[in-house]
Structures are given as C-alpha cells and as structure tokens.
C-alpha cells in the first residue's frame, strides 16, 4: 500500500470534459496522475462507487461544502477518484453539483487504485474490484497525508478530517 513519502504511481486517469479547450476535447480525457499533480497540492479521495449511499450523501458533499476552506488552506485541486468510467463520474458530478469544486476522476479499470494498493474485492456484493475509502494530500506528486478507512467506516477520510491535517 502507498504510504506517506511515496510518489504517486504514474497511471492514467480519466476526466470527462464538458467544454472543449486547448488540449482537451469534449468527452473523456486521459491524463497521467503524477504529471497532473506536478507543482500542485491536491487532495485525492477515493471511495467504493458512484451513486452509492455514503459516497453520495456524505463523502462527496463534504468536499463540495469544504472546497473554499481547502483552497484557503493551500489546496489547488480536489479529486474524487472511483472505479467507474468517466461518463458515470461526470453524471454523478452533475447530480452532486461538484463543478468548480471537486474534479470527478474515473479509474474505470482500477489501475490507479490497484497501483496504490487500495483496492478491495466487492464481487460478492455485485460490485467487482473497487476502491477502499481513503483520502490523501499530495504535494508535487508526493503523498504527505494518507487516511484509509477501516472496512465499513467513514471517520478519517472526510473533508473535515483532511482540513484538520492542513491546519
């Protein structure tokens, strides 16, 4: 499992882009995670799945509500990473009104999640390989804080807990 002091794995993730800009077409756009974090402080939080109860009711909304405070604490971007495709992550982001606050990042094949060592097998629950619930602060591609939840818990990876580590 990744730990504090480690560099993020150089794995591609995907973000759905709604408006074309220079270098980004409309639709799913791939980017290397480590490269995208270069020169930035990023909060990355992972969760089991889009539209799931705790993720939709508490985890993502907490980061949306805390976006301004995270920015004031020196965070450049906040990413929600889930083992879902970019189309699902985009729809979920629209549903939760994350625009401009939390980037909804797709790890559809679980490559990033597995490279972190934070995957879990939820096949018996019909979900396949998914992410554990976690949050990390990454500074210039290096993990500075890592909080991984115990199975079934939501106590250390929420926005308030991450804000407390930044103060």
UniProtKB/TrEMBL annotation:
Keywords of this entry: Antioxidant, Oxidoreductase, Peroxidase, Redox-active center
Entry's Gene Ontology cellular component terms: cytoplasm
Catalytic residue list: 55
Reactions that this protein is recorded to catalyse: a hydroperoxide + 2 glutathione = an alcohol + glutathione disulfide + H2O
Checking InterPro entries in the record gives: PRX5-like, Redoxin, Thioredoxin-like_sf, Thioredoxin_domain
Q: Which top EC class is named for this enzyme in its record?
A: oxidoreductase
This enzyme's EC code(s): 1.11.1.27
Its job: Thiol-specific peroxidase that catalyzes the reduction of hydrogen peroxide and organic hydroperoxides to water and alcohols, respectively. Plays a role in cell protection against oxidative stress by detoxifying peroxides.
Protein name (database record)? Glutathione-dependent peroxiredoxin
Q: Which organism is it from?
A: Caballeronia calidae
List the taxonomic lineage. Answer: Bacteria, Pseudomonadati, Pseudomonadota, Betaproteobacteria, Burkholderiales
């Amino acid at each position: 499992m990744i730990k504090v002091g480690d560099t993020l794995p150089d794995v591609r993730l995907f973000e759905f882009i709604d408006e074309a800009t220079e270098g980004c077409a409309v639709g799913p756009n791939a980017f290397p995670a480590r490269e995208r974090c270069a020169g930035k402080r990023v909060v990355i939080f992972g969760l089991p799945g889009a539209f799931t109860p705790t993720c939709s009711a508490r985890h993502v909304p907490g980061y949306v509500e805390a976006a301004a405070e995270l920015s004031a604490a020196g965070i450049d971007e906040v990413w929600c990473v889930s083992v879902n495709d970019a189309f699902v992550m985009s729809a979920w982001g629209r549903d939760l009104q994350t625009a401009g606050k939390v980037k909804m990042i797709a790890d559809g094949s679980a490559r990033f999640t597995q490279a972190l060592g934070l995957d879990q097998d939820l096949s018996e629950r019909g979900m396949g390989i998914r992410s554990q619930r976690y949050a990390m602060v990454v500074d210039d591609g290096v993990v500075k804080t890592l909080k991984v939840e115990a199975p079934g818990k939501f106590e250390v990876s929420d926005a308030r807990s991450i804000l407390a580590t930044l103060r």
